[in-house]
Amino acid sequence: MLRTNDDPRALRSRAAALAAATELLVEGGPENVTHATVAKRAGIGRATVYRHWPDQQALLLDALAGDIRPLLSFDDGPVRDQLVTQAGQMAHRLNQPSAVSILATVIQRAERDEGVRRLREEMFGRADEDLTRALATAVERGELRPGAQDHARDLVARIIGPLFFERFLHGVHLEEDLVVGLVDAALAPWLPNA
Fold first, then answer.
1. How far is CA 26 from CA 66, 126, 145, in A?
2. CA distance to 15, 24, 49, 150, per residue, from 156 (Å)
3. Residue-wise DSSP of 168-180
4. pTM for the model
5. Which of 14-18, 33-37, 76-80, 118-122 is predicted least confidently?
6. What angle do CA 119, 161, 117 make, to 5 degrees?
7. Could you tell me which of 70, 69, 58, 87 has the C-alpha nearest to residue 163?
């Protein structure tokens, strides 16, 4: 006999429930994600949903976690190119209504919920460290002036902060020229000829 987590039916019902939970979260916020609404949307029994997630918080956390990705991650390429690419990808993602709903829920709930706070850390927590390493490498290659690596948090805030502000507070569709302008403005004081 197959174990429950290996049973193809259990895997299908879990995937259907998570997809339904994400849709419900986007449509009506976290309060809309209940065992009953997920079961109805997924076309499965409520008991099946309870079997996968014994409580509503676990269900919500898994729905949120499915869309969580690290904010920034770097390789050995030129730091400006990487920032433009990654901030552009983030802007594209923020332009999707589902991402806005999920990020807003994570930001709002992280203040009171340890599980959601851990999700926020997965998303935002390593950005400073990763950017610090990338900036140090850029300084070694002569792309940026020494000291840039000491200002990673400020650089992240100058690039990502306005994207969140424009999308969440102004409802603006984020365009590539905004992303490029933010990256260039943040890096300008650290360019070798500045």
1. 13, 26, 43
2. 34, 31, 39, 12
3. IIS-PPP-HHHHH
4. 0.75
5. 118-122
6. 15
7. 87
Q: Return the half-sphere exposure (C-beta side, CA atoms, 13 A cut-off) of residue 127.
A: 23
- For residues 139-169, one letter each, b for 16 or more C-beta atoms within 10 angstroms of the residue's C-beta and e for the rest, the string is beeebbeeebbebbeebbebbbebbbebbee
Q: Specify the 3-state DSSP secondary structure of 75.
A: coil
- Residue 1 DSSP class: -
pLDDT in tens, 115-148: 888 888 877 766 778 889 999 999 999 999 999 9
DSSP 64: H
Tokens of 96: 């999707």
Sign of the Cα torsion 176, 71, 18, 36 reads negative
Question: Token pair 């299908």 is at which residue?
Answer: 12
Question: What whole-number distance in Å separates Cα of residue 177 and Cα of residue 182?
Answer: 9
- 142/61 Cα distance (integer angstroms): 43
